[in-house]
Amino acid sequence: MDAEEAPETQAKLARLGLSWVVAPVDPNDVAGQWSVYDSADPVTREPIKADSLASVLARLANDPRPTNATRGFVIPSTN
After folding, report:
1. What are the C-alpha distances in Å from 16 to residues 60, 67, 68?
2. Per residue in 7-55, pLDDT tens?
3. Phi and psi dihedrals of 21, rounded to 5?
4. Which residues does residue 24 pair with via DSSP β-bridges, in sequence order?
């Protein structure tokens, strides 16, 4: 994935409650390739295996819940 796809992937992971981190493969090249890691620290992080990531994202793709749900109140009219 690239820098444009990274925020969407990070949002999907957050929806699932995963603390995985989407970050550049080379921390000095944010315009390059990005991947998913177990932590943000570039020294100690480990990449999430592609098959695990694909499985998680496929499960999310089949999730019937809306992706842009909001909370609020319904106030009935007085008429």
Report:
1. 8, 11, 14
2. 988 988 888 888 899 999 999 999 999 999 999 899 999 998 888 878 8
3. -120, 135
4. 34
DSSP 25-77: SSTT-TTS-EEEESSS-TTT--BPPHHHHHHHHHHHHT--S-TT---------
Question: Looking up tokens 């603390």, which residue turns up?
Answer: 19
Cα–Cα dist 14/67, whole Å = 12
- 21 and 39 in contact (C-beta within 8 Å)? yes
Query: What per-residue confidence (pLDDT) applies to 24?
Result: 94
